[in-house]
Amino acid sequence: MLERCLGQQRVRRIQRAVRHAKVTFLCLFMTVVVMRGMLGAGKFGTPAQDLDDLTTHFYASRKHAEPHRVLVEAQPENENENQSNDPKNYATFDFNKILKDEGGEDEKPDPNKPYTLGPKISDWDEQRGEWLKRNPNFPNFIRENKPRVLLVTGSSPKPCENPVGDHYLLKSIKNKIDYCRLHGIEIFYNMALLDAEMAGFWAKLPLIRKLLLSHPEVEFLWWMDSDAMFTDMAFELPWERYKDVNLVMHGWNEMVYDQKNWIGLNTGSFLLRNNQWALDLLDAWAPMGPKGKIRDEAGKILTRELKGRPVFEADDQSAMVYLLATQRDTWGNKVYLESGYYLHGYWGILVDKYEEMIENYHPGFGDHRWPLVTHFVGCKPCGKFGDYPVEKCLKQMDRAFNFGDNQVLQIYGFTHKSLASRRVKRVRNETGNPLEAKDDLGLMHPAFKAVKVSTSS
Amino acid sequence: MLERCLGQQRVRRIQRAVRHAKVTFLCLFMTVVVMRGMLGAGKFGTPAQDLDDLTTHFYASRKHAEPHRVLVEAQPENENENQSNDPKNYATFDFNKILKDEGGEDEKPDPNKPYTLGPKISDWDEQRGEWLKRNPNFPNFIRENKPRVLLVTGSSPKPCENPVGDHYLLKSIKNKIDYCRLHGIEIFYNMALLDAEMAGFWAKLPLIRKLLLSHPEVEFLWWMDSDAMFTDMAFELPWERYKDVNLVMHGWNEMVYDQKNWIGLNTGSFLLRNNQWALDLLDAWAPMGPKGKIRDEAGKILTRELKGRPVFEADDQSAMVYLLATQRDTWGNKVYLESGYYLHGYWGILVDKYEEMIENYHPGFGDHRWPLVTHFVGCKPCGKFGDYPVEKCLKQMDRAFNFGDNQVLQIYGFTHKSLASRRVKRVRNETGNPLEAKDDLGLMHPAFKAVKVSTSS
User: Fold this and answer.
1) Which segments cross the bilayer (chains A, B) (predicted)?
2) CA A260 to centroid of chain Cα atoms
3) Quick one: which of B58, B205, B212, B299 has the fewest CB in 10 Å?
């Protein structure tokens, strides 16, 4: 099954990694460095600078030098206007200027200091509790059993390398705006790199910490990747189920704790409660993240330790599997690996079934019958190379978007002409009594966003 | 001043339009058709099909046939991987497939029926009032003096013709998400064309009507163009000032009612209260909108009747000026032309002053000192041609975005390295007591989004 999931190319890379026996020694060495970070500096005392300057072979698509992008619009034959040198003509504008990296250097981290997300805080529950008491007009529960949730997502401040990458980011945020509006959830869209050492997939950690500490009124922070889309607009998360846990991710206990499978859970869509435990988890999670040697070497450990993991630098998801699998006693009782619905749903097994779902089911299930989230892992439409054919990714992203969008449009009496079509058609006539319109999905005035009504007369 | 605003080219076009004397006859004829729509079918009886098939000269950039977009990435010299025929390589993907129009035809409107936004509703105040009474958990006022507001914006479901167009749409919606989150406002991002006859700038009318009728809980609908950005995150609209009006637009009474100046008001950012008056206004506003002969001919009337208007098809803004100027008694007492702050701020007179504003003022003024909205009229980054040089538009849009974004980032202790830079730098150190951080602008927990605290013990 893994071959089918990952492809022949990756299986060969895995085999190659196993054969590099000498890396084992370096991995053991790095384990010491990493464990020092997890358990606290001072217990081991080996600074990162002891590491040799090693070259590593990374998972190919992540490390190609990025060519400068020069886009030249082909002139159609019937174009009769002289467009050359027209400064108002976007077709002849040199977009290289937009895409090139800015000059200037990031602050250089001190190699003698172990990485830290920020000053250690040990009394966050008390600080937050006090604040909430003093600020009853910013309650952390909007209604009984309905926590205040902040959905956090984002993308690079640079234009995508590909012409349509930004268009899909735009559709993706519209999709999230729709779900969150229906469910009374606020959104934070990040386009700032807060910590240069934690670039790429690790950038979410400093961001999450900053938002938790700045917004004590937020009970749950919901991280969601930019390539994940909501496909069940009617599904409300089962908040009651999570009342005693602090971290919810889609995944399976056996795959994480027993197999240490690198895809045993997914960090593309998860909930994190705003409390001391979360700060401690972030601190424990972060050490494999700092880019460069630490991240590279940590990647090798993860490839060795986790089942099925290809060779590439450490990523946050693998690090989370490793953290939970090796420190279950510390974290496990507050982590819920949810497989009852698709808090994250791998697109590969979902997108061909949309028509079947429409035929047999309806929104509100959130699971295989009608997935809450369809997540386009590996498609990378903003980059240069994806792990899947471009045409397939874009076509399926359009279908997933329309599948979700139809549930919003039906509120207003419209639907897409097909799952492949941008165009919409009317499915319900206008009337003189719009408030009597059938609201099949209950999404026009959803119960999950109603405010509490004061019962005092 | 108009020349400086509009450019030499447009002044020449205005002069040319005046010289076409024979058009006057057609304009008079069209006035009859249009007035029939405004006053009600039946009073005149001349159907649109009486019009000859006329060709008109439109404002040039709106009517060029659009060339197919073929984007070919130039191969850098040091590229050593064979990218040709790699289906996973976005660089070699044929994006024409994405951009081409879909086949199929829109429903043909019946030429014998005058255009209408929907069945006439005359008791919306009663219907809405009843609904609000029955649904106290969806109040139209969030707090005393704080109406429930829905900000409505949107863009085409097609990727932009220009590689960076979608990137600027993405930044623009992030900017709106930030302002609305801080001010307790919900967002509706539209990407559906609900009525093929009302395409382009007129598409907002059917959308607005649909949203008002579907959301009785919304007190004010705030339409905002996709090329308008918030540049004062701290400015809360003066809702009390508008308690007796139904439509608020940036503009000047003299320029609209006395001069009939086509830019005497701006429909790129306006408030519309959810009531019967609004439905009636939309019905009165719509008749110049249906594309084709009606819109073309209406454009000629508007060019003739309004001061400074170039020759092009009827647009919603000119039509609004014309409507108010010719029917002041009907609408004027419920329209507030706001010039006390920049509900819409023309970018041309603002963007060079940002540094001066930072030096001398602070967020919260909303006016020339710190504009609420900077609106990039004429830039059209999603299209092929703008009215201004591309480089200038994109550079200034980046500056405006960063100017606004800095006000959000400062909540978290960061700022852009400069107004031109995507990169951010830390301006406040992390501490162990994040809730004691200085919140200069009061944006961390803004008063305008606090909920009402029940005073019952």
Assistant:
1) 21-39
2) 21
3) B58
Structure tokens at A230: 């909501």
8 Å CB contact between B310 and B15: no
- Which range has the worst mean pLDDT, A101-110, B7-16, B138-147? B7-16
Which residues of chain A make contact with B279, given a CB cutoff of 8 A? none
Nearest CA in chain B to A414: B194
CA B135 to each of CA A212, A238, A432, B7: distance values in angstroms, whole numbers, following the listed order: 34, 25, 20, 53
Query: What pLDDT, on a 0 to 100 scale, did the predictor assign at position A162?
Result: 87
Quickly tell me which residue has 């026996």 as its tokens: A21
Residue in A164, A194, A452 nearest the CB of B414: A194
- Preferred mutation among A77, A90, A148, A443 to probe B, highest tally of B CBs within 10 A: A90
Q: Which residue of A has its CA nearest to B162?
A: A90
Q: Which residue from A433, A232, A135, A94 is spatially nearest to B450, judged by alpha carbons?
A: A135
Half-sphere exposure of A203 (CA within 13 A, CB side): 18
Per-residue pLDDT tens digits for B283-312: 999 999 999 999 999 999 999 999 999 999
Exposed (0-12), middle (13-18) or buried (19+): which is A78, by Cβ within 10 Å?
exposed
Closest alpha carbon within chain A to B90: A384
Regarding an ipTM greater than 0.90, the answer is no
Does A2 score more than 90 pLDDT?
Answer: no
When pLDDT is averaged across residues A355-367 and rounded to a whole number, the result is: 98
Report yes or no: B394 and A82 within 8 Å, Cβ to Cβ: no
Using CB atoms within 10 A of its CB, is residue A38 exposed (0-12), middle (13-18) or buried (19+)? middle
With beta carbons less than 8 A apart as the criterion, state whether B204 and B316 touch.
yes
